[in-house]
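hey can u check if this looks right to u? its 284 residues, i copy pasted from the old doc so theres a chance i mangled smth
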Amino acid sequence: MKIFVTGATGKVGSRFVPYLLKEGHEVRILVRNAERVLSLKEQGVEVIEGDLLESEKLTEVIKGVDAVVHVAAQFRGGVREEEAKAINLDATIKLAESALEAGVTRFIFTSTGNVYRNMKVNRPCKEDDILMPAEHIYPKTKIAAEKALLKLHGEKGLDVRIMRLGFIYGDGDPHIEEFLPYMTNWNPLKKMSMVHHYDVCQALLLAASTPDIGGKIYNVADDNIFTIGELYKLQTGIEQLPIRDGWLMSNIWELALDTNNIKTELNFKPKYPSVYVAKHMGYL
């Protein structure tokens, strides 16, 4: 396959592009600074310099590929709402419309398990659960983008596949360490689904290569649902999170993902079924 990837210099994209090359696929990427990806160009990646917000160029950039995998997103704290909306929603819609204009209907969108925040369930969250209004800008813009893409699926035939990713870790990503300061404010019994970068890559490729799944949403996570307390202990060796006033006592299941659909429909089998396995194998 020839696959167009956005966000190739980000945490997910910078691991996904080499994975695609290793699997024998052709890759085209759009980056704002081509000098940052010289090593990828040397490996055969087709590099186009440009910006997702320069919408007039997108149709030409996408022509000739088999699928678009849209990874680029703005999710860091402190980002202005206008900036997050421009990247996560407006640019996503324009990219999908440009793909349709280019004759490329297969469109894989990386969303987030954070869309389930504020859910009141006593089990892992499922793809067909009715989402609650999001408070934070990142899941809010992802929910809006999902709705817009599904509308394009229904009205214009966009072959969209939406991937809701759990908490991503591994492969040199300091995500867990960055999250440590927040853990002490959360209920240690709160459950959270996690997924290794390698398994994110294989899930995205499965989504790009599997026929007849247009309009589907898939949760992406490993086999083991961690608790905040377990993760804190794994990283610090401290048996018990310190008890503090003001624990965020939201529903303990809101970040836990049901992965039955991706396993049964895409034959997804995590290489790292839990964080414990990844740590034992030296890939944490």
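The chain has one domain: 2-166+196-220+258-270.
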